[in-house]
């Protein structure tokens, strides 16, 4: 299992606590220090079944001084590039289980799903 997290994020700390409480074996990726590539983001998006704008922290764009592209297929690559270069825009935590189950672990239900998948 792998968890992309920002240690300053309370939702990330909660997810780590839940993983620890269940004895889950996981690795941590501090995605702000080691941003995902566009290919890694595409892989996560495919497993989640969503488009890039669905996992974007759009409220953080202004503070980062970036303009968000339109939410359409024609601008998908623009979204990916923006998120690679500004990883703070990526929703967190993203957790992937060994079987490929992937969630944005911001709620108990999502955490339970990925923990059950192991």
TrEMBL record:
Pfam family name, one: ArsC
InterPro entries on file: Arsenate_reductase-like, Peptidase_A2_cat, Thioredoxin-like_sf
Molecular function in Gene Ontology: aspartic-type endopeptidase activity
SUPFAM superfamilies: Thioredoxin-like (SSF52833)
Domain Peptidase A2: 16-108
GO biological process: proteolysis
UniProt similarity note: Belongs to the ArsC family.
Name of the molecule in the record: Arsenate reductase
């Amino acid at each position: 299992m792998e968890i992309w997290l920002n240690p300053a994020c309370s939702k990330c700390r909660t997810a780590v606590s839940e993983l620890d409480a269940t004895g889950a074996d996981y690795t941590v990726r501090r995605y702000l220090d080691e941003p995902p590539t566009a290919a890694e983001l595409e892989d996560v998006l495919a497993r989640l079944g969503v488009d890039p704008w669905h996992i974007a922290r759009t409220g953080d764009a202004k503070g980062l001084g970036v303009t968000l592209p339109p939410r359409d297929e024609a601008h998908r690559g623009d979204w990916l590039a923006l998120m690679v270069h500004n990883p703070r825009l990526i929703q967190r935590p993203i957790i992937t289980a060994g079987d490929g189950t992937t969630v944005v672990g911001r709620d108990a239900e999502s955490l339970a799903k990925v923990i059950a998948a192991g």
